[in-house]
Specification:
The protein is built from six helices and three strands. The chain has about 120 residues and is mainly alpha-helical. It folds into two domains: about 80 residues, no CATH class; about 30 residues, no CATH class. A three-stranded mixed β-sheet has the order 2-1-3, with no helix packed on it. The protein is elongated. This is Transposase.
Length: about 120
């Protein structure tokens, strides 16, 4: 499971809160904007309640958070698998490399030396 520092999660929540339709209740909010933020929070800490921005009017786009999570992860998985070994080489630190790639700290250091 991904581990992102709580400070980073808080900054992400302030910077790009998910956008939901008006009238949506907390358990069935339909996310239509800043979807990646919603996906990250859902994947990292599903029990956490986050602040969202609500639209003033409805729109015709209707996707539940579950649908968006499934579609986003399915779309990004092949790209992630192809570029996973490149991530430690471009990361700013070992901690960031570990977070982005999912490898151990030792494996990240090894990949950084090679690249």
């Amino acid at each position: 499971m991904l581990t992102i520092p709580h400070v980073a999660l808080g900054e992400l929540e302030k910077w790009a809160p998910p956008v939901v339709l008006p009238g949506a209740n907390a358990s069935k909010a339909l996310v239509i904007g800043n979807v990646l933020t919603a996906v990250l929070f859902r994947h990292i800490d599903p029990s956490r309640q986050i602040k969202v921005r609500r639209l003033k009017r409805n729109t015709s786009l209707r996707r539940s958070l579950d649908e968006i999570c499934v579609l986003t992860l399915a779309a990004l998985d092949p790209l992630y698998r192809r570029t996973r070994q490149l991530l430690p080489g471009i990361a700013n630190s070992l901690e960031e490399a570990q977070l982005l790639s999912g490898y151990s700290r030792a494996r990240c250091a090894q990949l950084r030396r090679v690249s």
